[in-house]
Amino acid sequence: MNNPKPLRKIIHVDMDAFYASVEQLDNPELRGKPIAVGGSEARGVVSAASYEARKFGVRSAMSGVQAKRNCPELIFVKPRFDRYKQISKKIRAIFHEYTDLVEPLSLDEAYLDVTQNKKGNPSATLIAQEIRQRIFTELGLTASAGISVNKFVAKVASDYNKPNGQKTVNPEEVESFLEQLDIRKFYGVGKVTAERMFHLGIFTGKDLKSKSLDFLETHFNKSGNYYYHIARGIHYSEVKPYRAAKSVAAEHTFRENLTSEIFMEQKLSRIAEELEQRMKKPNVSGKTVTLKIKYSDFSTQTRSKTLPYFVADKGIIFETAKELLYQERLKESVRLLGISMNNLNTESKKTVVVQLKFEF
Hints:
Blueprint: E1 10-15, H1 18-26, E2 35-37, E3 48-49, H2 51-54, H3 64-70, E4 75-77, H4 81-96, E5 102-106, E6 109-113, H5 124-139, E7 143-148, H6 151-158, E8 166-168, H7 174-179, H8 191-199, H9 205-209, H10 213-220, H11 223-230, E9 247-258, H12 261-280, E10 286-295, E11 300-311, H13 314-325, E12 334-344
Parallel strand pairs: 2-4, 7-8
Antiparallel strand pairs: 1-6, 1-7, 2-3, 5-6, 9-12, 10-11, 10-12
Helix pairs in contact: 4-5, 10-11, 12-13
Main location: cytoplasm
Cofactor: Mg(2+)
Catalytic activity: DNA(n) + a 2'-deoxyribonucleoside 5'-triphosphate = DNA(n+1) + diphosphate
């Protein structure tokens, strides 16, 4: 692999069906049964599914109606995010016993750089095994891990032997490992991009690697450069314990779909007010206001406007969001509205994530 930079020892730890596994851990009656966290058989969206439910094709982001159709025996469980955060903190405490270079991606996954580690253990593979065993012994949950020379390959590898497994990709194995992978397994290649690649004759990592940089940039613009390098296992991003905030967002899912823009204005006013409060704590402001609209058919649309100055005032946020709402006609009734602030005024803050409670 033509990589002039020094190789690192990176572990990506990914908890197995985290939310669902926590619910089964706390409630023995749910163990071994197909459960969905979030949603309901009437409406709503599944946040997580147990492996028993996944056998029936139940997935996160699937409507509760479709999930119940796929699995008639499915049990819906209300999310308990405070409990998930509590356990996540314990998991991260274990990580920090091995290295301070821990970069959480969410409550249930993180990167660890163990090139130099607190245990003085030269084997990243053995460290990953030990961490996974400790999570199981101390918390009763299983985790999977990927171990390799950079974050990209480690993340791809963590999905290879799920659940409750791990995969090490040594430096000399990186390119051959990626060549045989289905392109849909590449982190950063979503469903839409995969379909575009299929039309271009790209089905595996080897196919992607065969394309020139010019070809990929022509068809995928700036992302072409990223695809060109990851096909060769080249990814220089470091594990960063504190990531700069890129956006602050708030959204509401409604009990009943909305068809009137007047009612939507009322909801946007509330969301703007919540967003202002959330921006006060880290003292951030932004220039770009983005309105998120999810329709009754579950399709999502975003509309953005960049202002000439930084704002954090609910009135300006609301007026801008309202302007975006009327930018064009809505195609369906609306089940979710959200506002996010991007292009923030600081790069020294921690990531800010805001998820307002669902309306039940």
